[in-house]
Amino acid sequence: MTEQLQQARDDLEEAAKSAGDDDIREDIRETTDAFADYVMGETQPDHAILDERLNTLRQVRERADGNTEAKVESAIESVEDYREGIEQA
Fold first, then answer.
1. DSSP string computed for 7-19
2. Most buried of 8, 16, 27, 37, CB within 10 angstroms?
3. Domain that includes residue 26, residue range
4. Helix or strand run (H / E) with residue 66
5. The model's pTM
6. Cα first-last separation, the chain
7. Considering the domain boundaries, does residue 89 fall inside one?
């Protein structure tokens, strides 16, 4: 299942590169770093953590445009797919 988080991380790295706004770039990088921790570490995010990350990404998507918006949307879809596969507490 971590493939989805890795894909989201890859999409967000591309989104950060194309972002023209420093605030958007910072929000993307913060989320990218969190996903890197989930992919590389032993900690698995739960629904609440993923909801928080998805909320941030949805807000970023609203402020972004072009390739940045498309990559953020792709990351959101990957995280949502991952989220569907984990059990709720």
1. HHHHHHHHHHHH-
2. 8
3. 2-84
4. helix 66-84
5. 0.92
6. 18
7. no
